Amino acid sequence: MRPLQTEDDFWRIRNFLREIFLLNGRHELAWHVARLDYWRWHFVNNLEVCSSLKDVITIWEGAGGQIGAVLHPFTMSEAFLQVHPAHRHADLEDQMIAHAERVFGPADDHGNRSIFIMADASDSVRQSVLAGRGYLKRPQPIHRWWRELDDGLAGAVGVPGFDIRSMGAEDELSARSWASWQAFHQGEPAETYQDDGGAWFLNVQSAPLYRRDLDIVAEAPSGEIAAFSTIYFDDATRSAVCVLVGTVPEYQRLGLGKAVLAEGFRRLQQLGATRVFANGYDPPASALYRSALGRLSLSHSWQKQYRQPAMTQTS
Predict the structure, then answer these.
(1) Element spanning 260, H or E
(2) Which residue among 8, 9, 121, 307 has the highest number of C-beta atoms inside a 10 angstrom radius?
(3) 283: number of CA atoms within 13 Å, CB side?
């Protein structure tokens, strides 16, 4: 067990995720490499969920240096375990979770701490370890949608009056940022929006798996962006993840979400992709993904509340 030390370590982890994704039959029993990219280039670089990758990523290696498992956060209250299927056993999972409890779970003003860890609904090993360490399963599951792209796709899905196209050049960043804010901050007053010219989206575009031709927008007759679907494609595993999908409230219930996804899937198929994933964290998202992807697996977030001094990682 050691902390991430170099940039090379990060790129080894990316390939490790590809390896275990294939060994797991191309199911997301660990993170897809696209999720790691989106976490680093958006949640770390934009939202600053941690100050340094070296402080939050731990690697378990074999004697020959091969990676067997990786522990990292999503936010500092959420830990994720990426484990090679050949090394799945309760002792390792227990060790990783114990380490997560020391490193993550920031304390409140009263010294109380809380941490969340995800477990697939079929993962009896992790669920048993979590229950044994005092975690409680949260009742609402995470809906993890996916579909095969080599089964054939329906014809083009269009919405009259709207242009379904690729994201534009840098001069469209501000409009894209405004559309995203409206989609994900419904009910908040517009005055709270801080326009940075779309600089945050440049980081999303900087991720290794980003492609402009898979960043689909629906342009309204007025010229504004009404909906969007940003997809990261990994040609090494011929699979993709929808990392950002949203519709501006004014244009909801017109079929635009399904239209931008359908266009993205059509382009993915032309690139040789055979499977695509999307996570639904609320009923509207799951309703969209149910219609556009159709196949479902479930995960649950497990929570533990405790009091324990935090530990800072050292190399």
Answers:
(1) helix 256-271
(2) 9
(3) 0
Measured over the CA atoms of residue 42, residue 45, residue 48 and residue 54, the dihedral's sign is positive
Coil, helix or strand at residue 257? helix
The residue written with tokens 């979770």 in the block is 97
Please report, for the domain that includes residue 241, its CATH number: 3.40.630.30
pLDDT digits 0-9 by tens, 219-260: 999 999 999 999 999 999 999 999 999 999 999 999 999 999
- Residue 298 burial (CB < 10 Å; 0-12/13-18/19+)? exposed
Domain with 210 in it? 150-273
248 within 8 A of 227, measured Cβ to Cβ: yes
The answer to whether residues 216 and 164 touch, using CB atoms and an 8 Å cutoff, is: yes
The residue written with tokens 């701490």 in the block is 113
Please report how the helices 283-292 and 256-271 are oriented relative to each other, as an axis angle in degrees rounded to 10.
Answer: 50
d(CA 128, CA 234): 33
Report the DSSP pairing between strands 78-83 and 113-120.
parallel
Question: Do 127 and 202 lie in a common domain?
Answer: no
Model-wide pTM > 0.90: yes
- DSSP state, 228? E
Of 273, 221, 214, 211, the closest CA to residue 250 belongs to 221
Q: What angle do CA 72, 210, 278 make, to 5 degrees?
A: 65
Q: Which amino acid is at 227?
A: A
- Bridge partner list, 242: 231
Quote the mean pLDDT of the chain: 94
Could you tell me the two tokens for 237? 């595993």
Report how far residue 28's alpha carbon sits from residue 287's, in angstroms, rounded to the nearest whole number: 20
